[in-house]
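Fig. S4 source data, part A: sequence.
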Amino acid sequence: MMTTESPVDSELKRSPCESEKDSKRSKTDQPDEEASEVIKTEPTADKNIEVNGSTETKDSTTTPERFVYPTKKKYAIMMGFCGDGYRGMALNVGVNTIEEELISALSKCNFIKPENARELGKMYFQRASRTDKGVSAARQVVSSNLNLGPDLKSAVVKLNEALPNDIVVYDIIKATKHFDSHKFASSRVYEYNCPSFAMAPTLGDTWSGYRITPEVLQNVRDFLLNFVGTKNYYNYTSNKSANDPSCFRYIRSITVSDPVVVEDIEYIRIFLHGDSFIYHQIRKIVGMTIAVMRNVAPSDHLEKSFQKERCDVPLAPGLGLVLDEVKMTRYNKKFGKDGMHTPLEWEPYEETVQDFKLKHILGVIHRKEKAESTMFQWLQTLKKHKFYTGDVLPDILTGDSKSTDNDTSSKEESSKPADNSESNESSKAAENPSG
């Protein structure tokens, strides 16, 4: 006759070692609590040990601190940065980039584990828009899995303390599990800060005291409208074939601000709003506009540039280019009003954004332009481009402009008015600083 063993009898027959193992196993199976805390092991009291009839005191040793990381979740990092001195945003080992600084700061703050600092795939790290060497961003979004606790405001403060002054985090927002800042970015707005003298139609007006006229400003606005809509930008990028579908890009709008005078230099700000932009596209749009406004390139060169035949399009300096805003319209429409997620919008930080932009982005652009004459030096290279065929060249290419007799190729002379009545009248224009 078989006897059935009761659970109590079975438990009593188990060895003490087995019971201890099960006890430990049940403890380790418990999930980590979402709390950013440091677990310290208290030092044990010194023990007196009897050795060969004598008593010795054995010093206790303490266990090193062990940091318990909170549960990993997906967040959106709302940030801005000045690109001057960095070789772009994307992480590149051994190269000074924005992501290198950001990831280093995240690691210092224990917001990511050390083993993930060089393996961004484990963090599902993604930027909404890539920026090249020297290009700044006023409103950029980065998505990543982070080990943060519930106090996100304190996390923002801590992260900013670990970052250099030319990189700022406006906020960290809990996002959906599969949020990808690049895929959910509906559109992007870029800004190009251009000294107005770059649009001057004559050599004599190419100096820092030039003030753009309403007629020239309107011509610039009208010309830039030619880029609105879907165009083939094969000639506005590099390393692409003429039949590559990625060369076709859609620009929603292009606007040009009224002129702004900062110290002695007047600027116009060109805003380009598009779904996405191809490599060098914006700088070449600005370069083409300058070439036509200055009569260096014929007006029909624009239409040729949209064709599949390769033609010359000048690349404007990168100094004035800024990623002004990444728009998360698609994400906000789907998740921003579901009652569980915060919309990714810029309005709550607008004052902080403008302060950072003025001090660390526009201020740096102006100081470098004034110190290095970046745009003025680049204008001298336009005559090397091949826009015309034949022997007949415009005066601005031959140097026979009737409006000036001075040589404007030196940095020193660029800051002085030309010896003619037109330039002297320009020097009387108001030069009150403006943001």
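Fig. S4 source data, part B ends here. The chain has a mean pLDDT of 81.
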